[in-house]
Amino acid sequence: MEEFREWGHRLVDWVADYLQNAGERPVLHSVRPNDIVNALPARGPEQGEPMERIWADFEKIVLPGVTHWNHPNFLAYFANTSAPPAILAEFVAAALNANGILWKTSPAVTELEVVTLRWLLDWLGLPAEWFGMILDTASTSTLHALAAARVHVAPETRDAGAPPNLVVYCSDQAHSSVEKGAMALGFGRRQVRLIASDEAFRMRADALQETIRRDRAAGLLPCCVVATVGTTSTTSVDPVRAIAEVAEREGLWLHVDAAYAGSAAVAPELRWLLDGCERADSLVFNPHKWLMVPVDCSVLYSRHPETLQRAFSLVPPILNTTDGGLNMMDYGVPLGRRFRSLKLWFVLRYYGREGLAQVIREQVAMTAELRDRIAADSRFEICAPCNLSVVCFRLRGTNEANSRLLEAVNRGGRFFLSQTVLGGRVVLRIAVGNMWTKRETLDAVWGEIERLARTAFPE
Amino acid sequence: MEEFREWGHRLVDWVADYLQNAGERPVLHSVRPNDIVNALPARGPEQGEPMERIWADFEKIVLPGVTHWNHPNFLAYFANTSAPPAILAEFVAAALNANGILWKTSPAVTELEVVTLRWLLDWLGLPAEWFGMILDTASTSTLHALAAARVHVAPETRDAGAPPNLVVYCSDQAHSSVEKGAMALGFGRRQVRLIASDEAFRMRADALQETIRRDRAAGLLPCCVVATVGTTSTTSVDPVRAIAEVAEREGLWLHVDAAYAGSAAVAPELRWLLDGCERADSLVFNPHKWLMVPVDCSVLYSRHPETLQRAFSLVPPILNTTDGGLNMMDYGVPLGRRFRSLKLWFVLRYYGREGLAQVIREQVAMTAELRDRIAADSRFEICAPCNLSVVCFRLRGTNEANSRLLEAVNRGGRFFLSQTVLGGRVVLRIAVGNMWTKRETLDAVWGEIERLARTAFPE
Asked: Chain B partners of A157 at a C-beta cutoff of 8 Å?
């Protein structure tokens, strides 16, 4: 244990230095495909190796292949944070190795999950009685919601198998995980309808209603509609209340994908984001996206735990219990459950609701300022309403010019941005979401883009 | 960052002490349902709290609710280990927060996964060209395998949806995750056949063949057979070679569940366990079960990566890439991917193949010695062949007496065992698998059982 102690102290200092100076590293990796594979031996070692050598290879071979998500200049996808107290919690959780298969296999795993997810319901203004559980990613959470929706609409699925004519609805801006989940579950891509969105990229509830009508007329069975609060491309917010009206009238399960934007509702002035969500049958949001918790930590809520049980519960004799504790395995696919609630609990307590709200509030404000600066430059256009912490913009020019601009920024090594496509047009995205990102970061990235636009793409 | 540094050092010492002295704690938690929920506030804090207070609550409220998996006397389910180098790797991974959505979002996440999973193919004697990826648990891996099997046998599933007449086969000793996965995917429980096992709890290949014949005659479409190498109840090993013959002849996908026992094949003398598995279409094994890696780390291998892609790949514009890197998201449900390969790489290097083999070899040997001691006591009987690190036994008496004996052992607080049911009879299981468990541990648990049998259940 002396070796562990010594290396532990050494790595604590390494991590502290890393967090302090992350901004001095290139944010993007600096390797080509297979560089790391080729730099490491094709066969594993027969005999054990000293920590010194493993760590040397980590610094020399692995680290150049890391894209630094916990870096202030990471502005791609949905930027996020691994907050210091959460890093410590993950360390302790790995040491305990507690596994929440059943309540009794580590009650703290299950009960801290119950406690933290109730706190979050309260902070987000969602119904206090909802059931919640932590899964790895929003893709997995949405797959669970779709499976529950299917059992809800067609209870015979559990025993007799799924009927072939079920249909899933989401907007043409929904995350690919909806279509992927439906496909993996055997719905078939043809049974997924991508409903048209309006000029602000929000699902049109009238188009949803009309499509359901047509599907019923064709003998199909509408099953589930997925509304998005904070789409991946533009952070647009579907009209959940109007969609809930349709879902209730038509007997569909309403699942809300608030993976990114849900967290923002910890700030009272952003509670409007979840308007209507209290009528959802299930909702996913990811504390690992915008609540400073390291990956992975996705929360799936549902008002129908008994439907999750119907979709997933099977108890073999080896896991039979009579202690009255809550066995999370009865509500989803995974049996093993890492102690993810520990890091969530550390973060919620260390920052408090107001501390988290303040970080998000600041990020929304500085993103709006960035948008205004971009909008004021006639060479650029803003491509979508900017309501949260993502700004979508482009050079007034060809798709190729925009792709080259993005590539030039990322190749520079100081910043990492991503792109999307809106109505066939390539659009650049700057996503703020890392707590280390400051106003100066956004000044600098805009300076870089503006400079590249001037020199590489002169008018 | 000074606070992080200070707490980091403090927690390194706490963890080192914990690992050193885990054996002095009660292995099982000491709480009743809702104790932890009730001890914590119903609402989360508005303002942030100091680390000192969070940690005090951790020690006072959370820790009594932890069942200590990383404790030498944990002998339930499949006991396992969180090895010191892996704990350090998890700490570093949490700080980096690298997310392997795409190759470029952190090439090291993907490429260390490629490297470590190739090393393991070599060590296990499996085909070098198999594709591998890390998922959270074996339940998730098996769900992926079943979805791939369905697309393999019925390629129209991806677009048109799953046909209603597909059938999945496994033995009556298979893990519940097979039936659960099939049910979640919409196969329907009636389309899962639990094939009879022989007197040593191994699937009968002749019964499999006969059941497939009958299903075909009834117009059903046999899709997938799941063979188990190391069943959960008794660690029995299905005759994979004979099952592969049937699967190949009948055009079924063969998935092997080697979640627990697969790791043992790092010891050459235990390679026989995977005999025939080179003919599988997919195979799952969990380094977090018997390879000293903390939860979660489940490996899914397949010879058909293109089938996984057909089952799961969907690329939205925001994730379009042209860099030629391997994007793991194309092969499964989760989009976000934690840097799980780091802990696996640390463990494989720190111990080496021979170091890991030596731990497993010792555990198998000491389990056999324990079995012999139990077999020599006429009050007890051994209930299944003991070929690996689990011994199944019972008092010669009623089910109730055995349940009471188990309860008495666990209530004592020094040891944690689990039970199963074989042919309607309650059976106690002692599972060795934690690297901290020594011969003296097994001497002591047997002493305790023997004492309880003598005093509480006199002849």
From this structure: 186, 188
Which chain A residue has its CA at the smallest distance from B234's CA? A318
Distances in Å between the Cα of B125 and the Cα atoms of A224, B104, B303 are: 45, 31, 14
Q: How confident is the model at residue B275 (pLDDT cuts 50, 70, 90)?
A: very high
| Residue B377 in domain | no
* CATH label of the domain that carries residue A209: 3.40.640.10
CA distances from A276 to A200, A243, A442 (A): 19, 9, 33
B77 falls within a domain: no
Q: Say what percent of chain B tops pLDDT 70.
A: 99
Residue A257 to residue A236: CA distance in whole angstroms? 12
Residue A216 contacts residue A191 (beta carbons within 8 Å): no
Q: How many domains does chain A have?
A: 1
What 3-state DSSP class applies to B320?
coil
Distance CA A237, CA A203 (A): 8
Q: Tell me, what's the ipTM? A: 0.97
Tell me if B4 is assigned to some domain.
no
Residue B140 lies in a domain: yes
Q: What pLDDT, in 10s, does the model give residues A395-439?
A: 999 999 999 999 999 999 999 999 999 999 999 999 999 999 999
User: What is the extent of the structural domain holding B315?
Assistant: 99-338
Task: Give A354's contacts in chain B (Cβ within 8 Å).
Answer: 46-48
Determine the Cα–Cα distance for residues A274 and A227; give it in Å rounded to an integer. Answer: 11
In the sheet that B425-431 helps form, which strands lie side by side, from edge to edge? B380-382, B390-395, B425-431, B418-422
Number of residues written out for chain A: 459
Segment 358-417 of chain A within 8 Å of chain B by CB: none
Residue to test with chain A: of B117, B335, B394, most A Cβ within 10 A: B335
CB count within 10 Å of CB A398 equals: 12
Q: Model-level pTM?
A: 0.97
**Rounded to a whole number, what is the distance in Å from the CA of B183 to chain A's nearest CA?**
6
Inter-chain residue contact B106 with A419, CB threshold 8 Å: no
